[in-house]
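Troubleshooting log. The previous run stalled partway through. Resubmitting the same three chains, unchanged.
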Amino acid sequence: MEQGLGQDYIPASGSFDKSRVLNVRPLRCLVPIFPSPPNMSSFSLPQAAPFVSASPTGPFPPGVAPFYPFFVPPDSQRPSEQDPQAPFGVPNQAGPFGFNNPVQAAVPISSFRTPPRPQPAGAPNHNWGAVNGDTGPSRRSTRTRTPSAFAEEDGYSDSQNQSAQYLSSFSMHITDAEETSKAERKKGKSQKRARGSKGVNISSPDVEADPIVSNLLASINLTTFDTFRRADGDKESVGYILMIYDFLRRRITQIEDGKEATPGVTRRPDLRAGTILMNKGIRTNIKKRVGTVPGVEVGDIFFFRMETCLVGLHAPCMAGIDYMGLKISQEEEPLAVSIVSSGGYEDNVEDGDVLIYSGQGGNIYRKDKEVMDQKLERGNLALEKSLHRANEVRVIRGIKDVANPTGKVYVYDGLYKIQESWVEKGKSGCNVFKYKLVRVPGQPEAFTMWKSIQQWKDGVTSRVGVILPDLTSGAESLPVSLVNDVDGEKGPAHFTYFPSLKYSNPVNSVQSSSICACQAGCLSGDPHCLCAKKNGGYLPYTANGVLVNRKSLINECGPSCSCPPNCRNRASQGGLKVRLEVFKTKDKGWGLRSWDPIRAGAFICEYAGEVLDKSKVEEFGSEAEDEYIFDATRTYQPLEVLPGDLNEDPKIPFPLIISAKNGGNVARFMNHSCSPNVFWQPILREANKETFIHIAFFALRHIPPMTELTYDYGIVQTNNAEQRRKKCLCGLSKCRGYFY
DNA sequence: CGAATTCAGCGGTAT
DNA sequence: ACCGCTGAATTCGAT
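Second attempt completed without errors. Output:
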C-alpha cells in the first residue's frame, strides 16, 4: 500500500493544480515546484531523495514569495480571525505584501526568530530559519557531509516495510554500549541530584530496592530490548513496555501511599517509573521518525505522557511538539513528527478531522511569567517546515478522563498534514502561531469515535443498532446497551439479569476473620488497619481504585468495617464504573465492550451467576452445555507480562464454578481470547457476617473505547477435554487454537 | 466539590 | 543551561 509519504511527496506530474496550491500555500512550496521523478517509492535511497531543495538563496519562481506571509504589519491588525482562509493573515493579495512585489517586500522568516547570538567567526550556524537573505554563513559552508550520511539520518519510516531490509539501510545510531554508558551517566546524575536537592527525590533508591520492583526489573529479559527492538518496536514490545510501566507506576504509588505524606512535596510515580525504565533501556522506537510508529496503532490510549515517550510516539515528556533534524540535500531542517493537543492552549478541536493547533512558547499558559510573542523557533519552526514539506505529523489528543477528572487520557489519532499556518493575536494580545492540521484519510476512527460516544451519552445523537437502551433494566448503576449493527439478530437468549453472585447455600463461605476500624477510610501501610494487614500490609488498590497487581486473593472491606463506602478497599463493590454495551460480534456471537476508556488495573465488573454446589459441579462435569460458565478450576496460562511472583495465580479454597446460563450480568457476554485485555481476580467480601468469594474482572492493559473485552477462559484438564474444547476465534498469532 | 494555583520534574535540544 | 500543552498536592471560590 503506497499510502502516505510517497504519494504525497510525488504527485504525478500534471496531476496537481499549481495555481491552487500556490493560492493555498504561497510560501516556497517544494512539492509543486520541483516534482520528483515518477515511480519513486516512498522508501527512497539517497540518490532518489524525494526532497529536492531549492538553493537557499533562490531563485524563487515567480509569485512565490519566501516567507512574507509571516510578516504582520504592526499597524494593520490583520484580521485572521475573521478570515482564516486567508493564509498567514494576508487579507488579500493586493496589498503591499501581495504577489505583485513579493520579494522586495519580503520579510525574512528570521524576523520572527530569536536574534542569533553573537558567534565567533566560522562557528557553525544553526540558524535554520535564515534560509533566504541570510546574512550569516550558511550551514553548508561550515559542514561537509558524506553522501551515505544522508541515508543514515533519514528518519522516514515506511509503515508497510519494517523489514530487515528497511532496518539494514540505516545504521543504528545507538549501540548497546553507548546505550549502557548513557544510562549509567544518567543514573549517576539523578542520584547526585537526589542527594543534593534537600531530599526531595531521596526515596527513589528504596523504590528500586523494593523486593517486588527489583524482582520485576531483574525478571525482564533485557535481550528482549536489544538494539533492534529499541530501534524499532512492534505491537508486542510496545504492549510489554506499557504494561511494565504501569505496573511499576502503580507499585510506586502503593509504596508512596504507605508513607507519611510530606506536605508540599509532590510525588510523581509516573516520572519515577518512567526514569527507571528509560535508564534500563526498557523502551522502543528510540529513533525518531516521520509517520507511523511500529507497534503503536491509531486509537491507542495513554494515561501519562511518559508512556508516549517510552514507546517512541512522542519523545518530549512535556512539550507539545516533537521534531527531528532531517538532512535534505545539503541542508538540515527541523521537521515536526508529532504533536500533543491537550487543551493548555487555545486550540480549536471542533471538527474531529481538523485541528487548529497553537504554537509553543510565549508563556501562554504560565501565570508567573510575562506573556510574549511566540517566536518562530523550535517546534514552531519545525511545524512551519513540515507545512512546506507536507510531511505527516502524528497527532495525540489529550482528553479529560471521565474516570479520573484530575487526569487526562491521550488518544493517538493517527497522521495529519499541516494545511496552513498563520499568526494571530491571542487573548493576551501577543502573537500566537496557528497551524491547521487535517487528518490523512483512510485511517481507523479514533478521536471522532470519542466524539460520537460523547454525543450518544449526551443524547445528541443515538447509537445505530440499539436494540435495548439498558438490558439491565436499571439493575446496574449505569445502563448497558444491547446493540446489533451487524445482522438481524434481535438479542441473546433470554436470561435474568442480576448484578451479583448467588450462593445457593453458605457452605462455601469462608469464615470472617477480622474487620477494620478505619473510620476515615483505609490507608495503605497503616499498621492499625486489619484489612490492609490481611492483604499483606498494603491495600491492593491505589487511591483511585486501580488494582496494583494480581493477587491470589484480595480481602476487601465489608459492611462490618468502620470505613465509609467510598473506602478504596472496596473497588469491586460500587457497581459498574464504565459505560458498557453488549454487542453482536462478527463471528463470536455476542460480546462486551466499553464506551469509556479503561485504564490498566481498573475494575470492570464481577461475574454474576449461580454458584454450583458440589453435586451440581459433578453433574456439570458430564454436561456438554457450558456456554455461560465461569470455572475457576480450569488451568490458566500465566498473564503474559508480569512474572508469577508479582502476578500471583488465583487461589480459591474450593472448586468454584459459576453458571450464568439462566441469569447473570454483563460478564456472561465476555468472550475468550488467547491474548486477553481483561483478567479475573478472586475477592473475599463480607455480607451478613459471612464472607464470600467473588470473581472480579480488571483491565490487563489500557483499553480504548469500543474495543472488545476478553479474558482467558482457561483449559479443562479432564478425560473428555478434547471433545469439549472449543475452537478459539481470537484470531491472534499467539492463539493456542482452543479453549476449555 | 470543581477550578485554579503552585511547583518540582524529566528527557530532549541547543549552547 | 534551558525549555515545555505534566501531574499531584494544595488552595481558592462558587455554590
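Takeaways: Residues 1-203 of chain A have pLDDT under 50 and may be disordered. Residues 261, 263-271, 304-306, 316-321, 339-345, 347, 358, 360-361, 364-366, 378-379, 398, 406-408 of chain A lie near DNA strand C (CB under 10 Å from a C1').
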